[in-house]
Amino acid sequence: MTSYALFGALEQGFAYGLMVLGVYLTFRVLDFPDLTVDGSLPLGASVAAVVVTSGHSPVLAILLAGGAGFLAGAITGILNTKFKILHLLASILTMISLYSINLRIMGRPNMSLLGKDTVVDWFQAFSGLPSYVSTPILFAVICSVAVAALIWFLHTEKGFAFLATGDNKQMITSQGVNTDVVIIFGVGLSNALVAMSGALVAQNQGSADVNMGVGTIVAGLASVIVGETVFGDKTISRAFIAALLGSVLYRVAIALALGLKLGSFSFTPSDLNLITALLVIFALVMPRMKRRLLGGVR
Are 183 and 20 in contact (CB under 8 A)? Predict the structure, then answer.
Protein backbone atom coordinates (compact mmCIF):
# COMPACT_ATOMS: atom_id res chain seq x y z
CA MET A 1 0.00 0.00 0.00
CA THR A 2 1.33 3.42 -0.93
CA SER A 3 1.46 6.22 1.63
CA TYR A 4 -1.18 8.10 -0.36
CA ALA A 5 -3.53 5.09 -0.17
CA LEU A 6 -2.84 4.78 3.57
CA PHE A 7 -3.72 8.44 4.19
CA GLY A 8 -6.85 7.91 2.09
CA ALA A 9 -7.88 4.95 4.27
CA LEU A 10 -7.24 6.98 7.43
CA GLU A 11 -9.29 9.82 5.98
CA GLN A 12 -12.22 7.51 5.28
CA GLY A 13 -11.89 5.77 8.63
CA PHE A 14 -12.11 8.99 10.62
CA ALA A 15 -14.71 10.54 8.29
CA TYR A 16 -17.03 7.64 9.10
CA GLY A 17 -15.80 7.51 12.70
CA LEU A 18 -18.74 9.53 14.02
CA MET A 19 -21.09 7.12 12.25
CA VAL A 20 -19.42 4.14 13.94
CA LEU A 21 -19.69 5.84 17.35
CA GLY A 22 -23.40 6.35 16.70
CA VAL A 23 -23.86 2.71 15.72
CA TYR A 24 -22.01 1.58 18.86
CA LEU A 25 -24.24 3.79 20.98
CA THR A 26 -27.46 2.13 19.85
CA PHE A 27 -26.36 -1.46 19.26
CA ARG A 28 -24.04 -1.93 22.23
CA VAL A 29 -24.96 0.68 24.84
CA LEU A 30 -28.75 0.92 24.37
CA ASP A 31 -29.20 -2.60 22.95
CA PHE A 32 -31.42 -1.02 20.28
CA PRO A 33 -30.99 -2.42 16.73
CA ASP A 34 -31.32 0.74 14.64
CA LEU A 35 -31.35 0.78 10.85
CA THR A 36 -32.22 4.49 10.65
CA VAL A 37 -28.52 5.22 10.02
CA ASP A 38 -28.83 4.16 6.37
CA GLY A 39 -31.11 7.16 5.93
CA SER A 40 -29.66 9.61 8.46
CA LEU A 41 -26.17 9.60 6.90
CA PRO A 42 -27.43 10.92 3.53
CA LEU A 43 -29.81 13.17 5.49
CA GLY A 44 -26.79 14.87 7.09
CA ALA A 45 -25.08 15.10 3.71
CA SER A 46 -28.21 16.58 2.10
CA VAL A 47 -28.68 19.22 4.79
CA ALA A 48 -24.98 20.15 4.69
CA ALA A 49 -25.01 20.40 0.89
CA VAL A 50 -28.01 22.74 0.87
CA VAL A 51 -26.59 24.92 3.66
CA VAL A 52 -23.13 25.20 2.08
CA THR A 53 -24.41 25.86 -1.45
CA SER A 54 -26.67 28.57 0.00
CA GLY A 55 -23.53 30.43 1.08
CA HIS A 56 -23.64 29.66 4.81
CA SER A 57 -20.84 28.45 7.07
CA PRO A 58 -19.78 24.79 6.63
CA VAL A 59 -19.54 24.53 10.42
CA LEU A 60 -23.18 25.61 10.68
CA ALA A 61 -23.95 22.99 8.03
CA ILE A 62 -22.49 20.24 10.25
CA LEU A 63 -24.44 21.43 13.29
CA LEU A 64 -27.72 21.63 11.38
CA ALA A 65 -27.06 18.19 9.92
CA GLY A 66 -26.63 16.87 13.47
CA GLY A 67 -29.93 18.46 14.48
CA ALA A 68 -31.73 16.88 11.52
CA GLY A 69 -30.21 13.51 12.38
CA PHE A 70 -31.36 13.87 15.99
CA LEU A 71 -34.94 14.48 14.85
CA ALA A 72 -34.81 11.41 12.58
CA GLY A 73 -33.53 9.21 15.41
CA ALA A 74 -36.05 10.67 17.86
CA ILE A 75 -38.87 9.74 15.47
CA THR A 76 -37.63 6.13 15.46
CA GLY A 77 -37.51 6.20 19.26
CA ILE A 78 -41.03 7.63 19.49
CA LEU A 79 -42.43 5.02 17.09
CA ASN A 80 -40.88 2.31 19.27
CA THR A 81 -41.65 3.64 22.76
CA LYS A 82 -44.93 5.50 22.31
CA PHE A 83 -46.55 3.53 19.49
CA LYS A 84 -45.04 0.16 20.49
CA ILE A 85 -43.69 -0.58 17.02
CA LEU A 86 -40.84 -3.13 17.02
CA HIS A 87 -37.49 -1.29 17.02
CA LEU A 88 -36.30 -2.86 13.77
CA LEU A 89 -39.55 -2.05 11.96
CA ALA A 90 -39.64 1.47 13.42
CA SER A 91 -36.12 2.18 12.18
CA ILE A 92 -36.87 0.72 8.74
CA LEU A 93 -39.97 2.93 8.43
CA THR A 94 -37.94 6.01 9.30
CA MET A 95 -35.12 4.97 6.97
CA ILE A 96 -37.32 4.54 3.90
CA SER A 97 -39.13 7.80 4.71
CA LEU A 98 -35.81 9.64 4.79
CA TYR A 99 -35.11 8.69 1.17
CA SER A 100 -38.02 10.84 0.02
CA ILE A 101 -37.20 13.54 2.58
CA ASN A 102 -33.61 13.75 1.33
CA LEU A 103 -34.88 14.17 -2.23
CA ARG A 104 -37.14 16.96 -1.00
CA ILE A 105 -34.29 18.69 0.83
CA MET A 106 -31.94 18.74 -2.17
CA GLY A 107 -34.63 18.89 -4.84
CA ARG A 108 -32.63 16.35 -6.87
CA PRO A 109 -30.88 12.98 -6.36
CA ASN A 110 -27.46 14.58 -5.83
CA MET A 111 -25.88 17.97 -5.25
CA SER A 112 -22.33 19.17 -5.92
CA LEU A 113 -20.27 21.24 -3.48
CA LEU A 114 -17.46 21.96 -5.92
CA GLY A 115 -16.26 25.55 -5.68
CA LYS A 116 -17.81 26.03 -2.22
CA ASP A 117 -15.85 26.52 0.99
CA THR A 118 -15.86 23.52 3.33
CA VAL A 119 -14.27 22.74 6.70
CA VAL A 120 -11.73 20.65 4.78
CA ASP A 121 -10.64 23.70 2.78
CA TRP A 122 -10.56 25.87 5.88
CA PHE A 123 -8.35 23.48 7.82
CA GLN A 124 -6.03 22.91 4.90
CA ALA A 125 -5.52 26.67 4.53
CA PHE A 126 -4.99 26.99 8.29
CA SER A 127 -2.52 24.10 8.59
CA GLY A 128 -0.64 24.67 5.33
CA LEU A 129 -0.41 20.89 4.88
CA PRO A 130 -1.33 18.94 1.73
CA SER A 131 -5.00 17.96 1.66
CA TYR A 132 -4.26 14.23 1.90
CA VAL A 133 -2.49 14.91 5.22
CA SER A 134 -4.60 17.72 6.70
CA THR A 135 -7.97 16.04 6.12
CA PRO A 136 -7.26 12.87 8.18
CA ILE A 137 -5.89 15.09 10.98
CA LEU A 138 -9.02 17.26 10.97
CA PHE A 139 -11.38 14.28 11.05
CA ALA A 140 -9.28 12.58 13.75
CA VAL A 141 -9.52 15.69 15.95
CA ILE A 142 -13.30 15.90 15.47
CA CYS A 143 -13.75 12.21 16.30
CA SER A 144 -11.48 12.49 19.36
CA VAL A 145 -13.57 15.36 20.71
CA ALA A 146 -16.74 13.30 20.13
CA VAL A 147 -15.25 10.28 21.94
CA ALA A 148 -14.18 12.43 24.90
CA ALA A 149 -17.65 14.02 25.10
CA LEU A 150 -19.42 10.64 24.99
CA ILE A 151 -17.14 9.16 27.66
CA TRP A 152 -17.73 12.19 29.89
CA PHE A 153 -21.51 12.00 29.37
CA LEU A 154 -21.71 8.29 30.18
CA HIS A 155 -19.89 8.91 33.47
CA THR A 156 -22.52 11.43 34.61
CA GLU A 157 -25.70 10.52 36.51
CA LYS A 158 -27.80 10.67 33.35
CA GLY A 159 -25.14 8.66 31.55
CA PHE A 160 -25.38 5.85 34.11
CA ALA A 161 -29.16 5.79 33.56
CA PHE A 162 -28.38 5.57 29.85
CA LEU A 163 -26.11 2.55 30.38
CA ALA A 164 -28.56 0.90 32.76
CA THR A 165 -31.42 1.23 30.27
CA GLY A 166 -29.53 -0.89 27.77
CA ASP A 167 -28.27 -3.32 30.39
CA ASN A 168 -31.38 -3.90 32.52
CA LYS A 169 -34.43 -1.92 31.52
CA GLN A 170 -36.72 -3.36 34.20
CA MET A 171 -34.29 -2.58 37.02
CA ILE A 172 -33.74 1.05 36.02
CA THR A 173 -37.50 1.53 35.51
CA SER A 174 -38.07 0.40 39.10
CA GLN A 175 -35.69 3.18 40.17
CA GLY A 176 -38.02 5.79 38.67
CA VAL A 177 -36.17 6.42 35.41
CA ASN A 178 -38.33 7.09 32.35
CA THR A 179 -36.69 4.69 29.90
CA ASP A 180 -38.83 5.93 27.02
CA VAL A 181 -37.17 9.35 27.25
CA VAL A 182 -33.74 7.73 27.51
CA ILE A 183 -34.33 5.62 24.39
CA ILE A 184 -35.69 8.54 22.37
CA PHE A 185 -32.75 10.73 23.36
CA GLY A 186 -30.22 7.93 22.84
CA VAL A 187 -31.40 6.97 19.36
CA GLY A 188 -31.59 10.67 18.49
CA LEU A 189 -28.03 11.26 19.70
CA SER A 190 -26.80 8.26 17.74
CA ASN A 191 -28.34 9.50 14.50
CA ALA A 192 -27.09 13.02 15.16
CA LEU A 193 -23.55 11.61 15.12
CA VAL A 194 -24.32 9.64 11.95
CA ALA A 195 -25.75 12.71 10.21
CA MET A 196 -22.72 14.79 11.21
CA SER A 197 -20.56 12.06 9.71
CA GLY A 198 -22.60 12.36 6.51
CA ALA A 199 -22.00 16.13 6.50
CA LEU A 200 -18.24 15.58 6.84
CA VAL A 201 -18.22 12.98 4.07
CA ALA A 202 -20.19 15.27 1.75
CA GLN A 203 -17.85 18.19 2.37
CA ASN A 204 -14.85 15.94 1.88
CA GLN A 205 -15.94 14.32 -1.38
CA GLY A 206 -17.58 17.47 -2.71
CA SER A 207 -21.08 16.11 -3.21
CA ALA A 208 -24.13 14.63 -1.54
CA ASP A 209 -26.20 11.77 -2.93
CA VAL A 210 -29.43 10.17 -1.72
CA ASN A 211 -27.94 6.69 -2.19
CA MET A 212 -24.71 7.30 -0.25
CA GLY A 213 -26.16 5.68 2.88
CA VAL A 214 -26.62 2.22 1.36
CA GLY A 215 -24.69 -0.30 3.46
CA THR A 216 -23.90 2.20 6.23
CA ILE A 217 -25.18 -0.05 9.00
CA VAL A 218 -23.13 -3.00 7.71
CA ALA A 219 -19.94 -0.93 7.60
CA GLY A 220 -20.69 0.47 11.06
CA LEU A 221 -21.25 -2.94 12.64
CA ALA A 222 -18.18 -4.35 10.90
CA SER A 223 -16.07 -1.51 12.31
CA VAL A 224 -17.47 -2.05 15.83
CA ILE A 225 -16.82 -5.81 15.72
CA VAL A 226 -13.30 -5.39 14.33
CA GLY A 227 -12.51 -2.78 16.98
CA GLU A 228 -13.83 -4.93 19.84
CA THR A 229 -11.92 -7.95 18.60
CA VAL A 230 -8.59 -6.17 18.22
CA PHE A 231 -8.68 -3.66 21.09
CA GLY A 232 -11.23 -5.11 23.53
CA ASP A 233 -14.19 -3.49 25.29
CA LYS A 234 -13.71 -4.09 29.02
CA THR A 235 -14.50 -0.47 29.96
CA ILE A 236 -16.79 2.06 28.32
CA SER A 237 -13.85 4.35 27.55
CA ARG A 238 -11.90 1.56 25.93
CA ALA A 239 -14.98 0.43 24.00
CA PHE A 240 -15.54 3.82 22.36
CA ILE A 241 -11.88 4.20 21.48
CA ALA A 242 -11.91 0.66 20.08
CA ALA A 243 -14.98 1.47 17.96
CA LEU A 244 -13.26 4.53 16.49
CA LEU A 245 -10.02 2.66 15.80
CA GLY A 246 -12.09 -0.20 14.38
CA SER A 247 -13.47 2.24 11.79
CA VAL A 248 -9.91 3.07 10.75
CA LEU A 249 -8.83 -0.59 10.67
CA TYR A 250 -11.88 -1.49 8.61
CA ARG A 251 -11.03 1.12 5.96
CA VAL A 252 -7.35 0.15 5.95
CA ALA A 253 -8.31 -3.52 5.53
CA ILE A 254 -10.54 -2.63 2.58
CA ALA A 255 -7.76 -0.59 0.99
CA LEU A 256 -5.36 -3.52 1.42
CA ALA A 257 -7.88 -5.96 -0.04
CA LEU A 258 -8.59 -3.75 -3.05
CA GLY A 259 -4.85 -3.46 -3.69
CA LEU A 260 -4.27 -7.21 -3.36
CA LYS A 261 -3.35 -9.12 -6.51
CA LEU A 262 -2.92 -12.88 -6.72
CA GLY A 263 -1.84 -13.65 -10.23
CA SER A 264 -4.62 -12.51 -12.51
CA PHE A 265 -7.11 -12.23 -9.61
CA SER A 266 -7.79 -8.96 -7.82
CA PHE A 267 -10.66 -7.44 -5.85
CA THR A 268 -12.68 -4.61 -7.37
CA PRO A 269 -14.93 -2.00 -5.72
CA SER A 270 -17.92 -4.19 -6.62
CA ASP A 271 -16.55 -6.79 -4.17
CA LEU A 272 -16.87 -4.39 -1.21
CA ASN A 273 -19.79 -6.27 0.37
CA LEU A 274 -17.91 -9.56 0.07
CA ILE A 275 -14.81 -8.03 1.67
CA THR A 276 -16.93 -6.63 4.52
CA ALA A 277 -18.56 -10.01 5.14
CA LEU A 278 -15.18 -11.74 5.23
CA LEU A 279 -13.81 -9.15 7.65
CA VAL A 280 -16.75 -9.59 10.03
CA ILE A 281 -16.52 -13.38 9.87
CA PHE A 282 -12.80 -13.21 10.61
CA ALA A 283 -13.35 -10.79 13.52
CA LEU A 284 -16.04 -13.04 15.02
CA VAL A 285 -14.11 -16.27 14.60
CA MET A 286 -10.67 -15.00 15.65
CA PRO A 287 -11.34 -14.87 19.44
CA ARG A 288 -12.50 -18.52 19.49
CA MET A 289 -9.52 -19.60 17.41
CA LYS A 290 -7.21 -17.71 19.78
CA ARG A 291 -8.70 -19.50 22.81
CA ARG A 292 -8.33 -22.86 21.14
CA LEU A 293 -4.71 -22.19 20.29
CA LEU A 294 -4.09 -21.20 23.90
CA GLY A 295 -5.84 -24.35 25.14
CA GLY A 296 -8.81 -22.57 26.66
CA VAL A 297 -11.39 -24.48 24.59
CA ARG A 298 -11.29 -28.23 24.05
Answer: no
pLDDT (mean) for 83-104: 97
Is 134 a member of any domain?
yes
Where is average pLDDT lowest: 115-124, 162-171, 201-210?
162-171
Residue type, 224: V
- Are 65 and 196 spatial neighbours (Cβ–Cβ below 8 Å)? yes
Q: Model-level pTM?
A: 0.95
- Say if 259 falls within a structural domain: no
Task: With respect to residue 106, please indicate whether it lies within any of the assigned structural domains.
Answer: yes
What is the extent of the structural domain holding 123? 3-213
Q: What is the DSSP string of 87-144?
A: HHHHHHHHHHHHHHHHHHHHSSSEEE-TTS--HHHHHHHHH---HHHHHHHHHHHHHH
Stretch 174-202: mean pLDDT:
96
Interior/surface letters 23-32, b for 16+ CB within 10 angstroms, e for the rest: bbbbbbbbeb
pLDDT given at position 282:
83
Instruction: Determine contact, residues 43/3, Cβ cutoff 8 Å.
Output: no
Considering its fold, how many domains does the chain have in total? Answer: 1
How far apart CA 120 and CA 126 sit, in angstroms, is 10
pLDDT at position 294: 73
Element spanning 266, H or E = strand 265-266
Among 14, 181, 4, 210, residue whose Cα is nearest residue 109: 210
Q: Are 91 and 34 in contact (CB under 8 A)?
A: yes
Question: Is the residue at 113 inside a domain?
Answer: yes
C-alpha to C-alpha distances, 57 to 12, 49, 51, 52, 249, nearest whole angstrom = 23, 11, 8, 6, 32
- Helix 157-167 crosses helix 131-154 at what angle (to 10 degrees)? 90
